[in-house]
Design goal:
Elements lengths: L1 H11 L2 H7 L40 E5 L5 E5 L8 E5 L2 E3 L22 E3 L1 H7 L6 E5 L7 E9 L3 E11 L8 E13 L8 E13 L3 E17 L8 E18 L5 E16 L12 E18 L2 E16 L9 E18 L2 E14 L5 E12 L4 E13 L3 H5 L7 E2 L7 E14 L2 E20 L6 E20 L3 E15 L7 E2 L6 E12 L4 E12 L11 E11 L7 E8 L18 E9 L1
Parallel strand pairs: 3-6, 20-23
Antiparallel strand pairs: 1-2, 3-4, 5-6, 7-8, 7-30, 8-9, 9-10, 10-11, 11-12, 12-13, 13-14, 14-15, 15-16, 16-17, 17-18, 18-19, 19-21, 21-22, 22-23, 22-25, 23-24, 24-26, 26-27, 27-28, 28-29, 29-30
Length: 614
Amino acid sequence: MRALRLSILSAFGVWGSVQGFAQDGPAVLAEVRVFSDRIANQASAGAFAMPVSALRYEPQVDVQTRNLGEAQADLTIRGGTFESVGVKLGGISLSDPQTGHYLAEIPVALDMLANSKIVTGAALALDATNATSGAVAYSWRPITAGGVAQVTIGDGQLFSTTWYQAMVAPARFGQTQLGADVALAHSSSEGLLPDADHAFDRLNIRLQAVSSASQTDVFAGYQSKQFGWRNLYTPFQSPESENLQTLLFALNHRAGLLGGDYLESAVFYRRNKDDYAYNRYAALTAIHPFQHTTWLSGAAISGRRTMDDFVADFRGEVWADEIESTSLLFGRYQTRTVAKASLAAEKFWMTDRAGRISAKVGATLDDSNRFRSAVSPVIELAREWSAAAVSRLWLSFSRATQLPSYTALNSNPSAGLFRGNAALGRERAVNLELGIAGGRAGWTGDAVLFYRADSDLVDWTYRRGVTARSANAVNLATSGLELVARRSWAQADVIIGFNALAKAADYRGAAMDASFYALNYARYRLTAALVYRFNRELELRLDNAARLQADNALRLIGGDETLISSWGLSYRPRAFARTRVTLRADNVWNSNYQEVPAVTAAPRLISIGLTYGW
């Protein structure tokens, strides 16, 4: 467990200093916009910040990257696969109908989003669509006047720049304040390995109307990403490349009601174009054989209503998706609709002035024009205390379902690099969890024991003697422990996360020798984040993740133990308070561990950035 020891040492090497300075009085924190309050570094060293950047060391999310995390990243939660995770943006659920690999293609500047929240268990079943293991939820950040510009240079001829400007109307229109913000970003690099270059661009525009009781956001975003990586998806050392273009429009309205009640409605449109080349140089003189475009649009309405000691939560969402592809032509359809409705009633009983008991009972309905509908139960019991070391104890049982991606359904079942299965059906996951949350001696945190039984989960598997990977259904039992704890002092913040997973898989007779995704998981994963403020000018930010991975025959380099770290040191001169210089390093130890089996690890990368805010 050398990696675990290294992680503890790197995260807490200045622990003695923290204790020594804790009583020296308040420190002034440098102006760093926080996108996730459970990691230290809010951006990577290698490109401009994207939503996935603030998830890299999130204790509840395991991000598996190819090239940079900002290039291609699979999100997994509680041992699920990249296809079983969802994203919520305001009142809507986003998905990637093509494959799930492009779920993290969210063309939104982090300056426009509030902190992310990880949704699991009963909340996932009630609040998200087409996800069975977990979801990452964002809300729209209220606009405040100001702006920020940043320029970064680094290894591999890296050049990255961002610009964000927010404006607020000088006068109100009745009770409504109008605002607008715009964001531009560019990043390019020749890369640190052969054929590992990238070129990213993003443009965002948002209009907002805010009153004392509501917020309305109108958003338009476009993102273009071109990048290369050998062994991007296949293990043959081919110079593979991706050309992705993502367009997103969203309209979101949230009205706050008395007592924490609300009503939220939203509509959205997402288009994702994917031009993948197995050999980027051969593709220069031939039509690329893997071109795909997906369209996803939908609308949602949700709300909460309190009546004395009784609460009702409801949600309804409908999608329509479509794919146009040069290779995904072997399934039964290229369009579909998806609908979900959920309703839950929660009853409270006061035990005394400092506590209460609650019981939530509900159900969800998942429907589609391509699959039979499914009705699923949701039950949660909780005990809460307002003045105790333990603030909440809960037990929940729920079920969630989703539909397979078009790559799994429509790939050629007998030829090619990726072999599909048109007979794949609705995926179901039953989730049982027991959790506790609270705080003591300045620490706050929570712990969850969970068990999830996936039925017909889509996985991509390998068979000796066959060069392709195949889509197969697996029944998967996953049990786990999830711990998160944090504490803040005048000059330091510490966040610790620990995850333990165990799995049992039944591929129901399918011929396979190894799994790329469902059985690619950390048996133990420890994350440790530290923010240390030496003084009002100098700040150190450390993110670390140590892991002991389950054995996988496809992982030939890097072993099953590793420590991955990202460190940042920022300096804000007292004479130039609006300016900040940041030195960042990703993969500090230059680990060659393969996060996705057979995919080459990204080497250590160092960059320096200059930020100016107004």
